[in-house]
Design brief:
The chain has 210 residues and is α+β, with helices and mostly antiparallel strands. The protein has helices at residues 25-43, 50-66, 68-76, 97-115, 133-140; strands spanning 2-3, 20-21, 78-83, 86-93, 125-131, 145-146, 153-159, 166-173, 177-184.
Length: 210
């Protein structure tokens, strides 16, 4: 069984009652690097909570020290920004679209497996948007909020109430990064992304762009 989000996103004493979903060993091996990248990226958010800061200090730093390629790639994606209250400013770190997309779709499918087990998501198209909590706070209040998360992530959403041919989900990490996933069988939910932007063998077939 696969923990979603992975256990490494959580503090050592907060790894109980996590969401799980079936995942083959081959798929798990392909996703481990992406999990590490996403954890490193999300934990470094400027306004991450204490759990995120702990992960950044104790997990992300070690990952970057051990992986020269990841360190160089993440450093190359940093852009300086000015932040009120921070005289030295800060930096924004961009992550590759295919990585973010694959990670959020995997989360969405795991929540569908747990909360809507009869729903067939295999034919679905998925659209992912990164938003801020303040932009979407009112909208999130209209969605069902799911238990768990242990200060690491929050989850809202479910199937569309009109015909159950799709769904809307939202995931927030370390009280900072927020992602909204809308999916359905209509082609209007297809999010354009170049298939050749994904390195060969990086993702299981079920998470490759289509």
């Amino acid at each position: 069984m696969d923990h979603v989000p992975p256990k490494e996103f959580f503090l050592p004493n907060q790894r109980t009652n996590l969401v799980t979903a079936p995942l083959c060993i081959e798929c798990h091996e392909k996703l481990s690097e992406n999990d590490n990248r996403m954890r490193s990226w999300l934990s470094c958010a400027l306004y991450a909570n204490e759990a995120g800061k702990w992960i950044a200090r104790n997990r992300t730093r070690k990952s970057l020290d051990a992986d020269d390629r990841m360190r160089r790639e993440m450093a190359g994606n940093i852009s300086p920004v000015k932040v009120v209250g921070l005289p030295r400013g800060a930096g924004t770190i961009k992550e590759e679209q295919w990585r973010v997309r694959a990670f959020i779709i995997r989360l969405t499918k795991a929540f569908l497996y747990k909360y809507a087990p009869a729903y067939d998501y295999f034919p679905d198209f998925f659209t992912i948007r990164q938003r801020t909590y303040h932009e979407e706070k009112a909208y999130l209040s209209t969605l069902q909020k799911h238990d768990g998360g242990n200060n690491v992530f929050e989850a809202w959403g479910g199937l569309m109430t009109d015909n159950h041919t799709g769904g809307i989900w939202a995931f927030r990490f370390y009280e900072a990064g927020l992602f909204i996933c809308v999916h359905g069988k209509d082609v209007k939910y297809r999010q354009p992304i170049a298939p050749d932007s994904v390195p060969d063998g990086s993702l299981p077939k079920s998470l490759e762009p289509r």
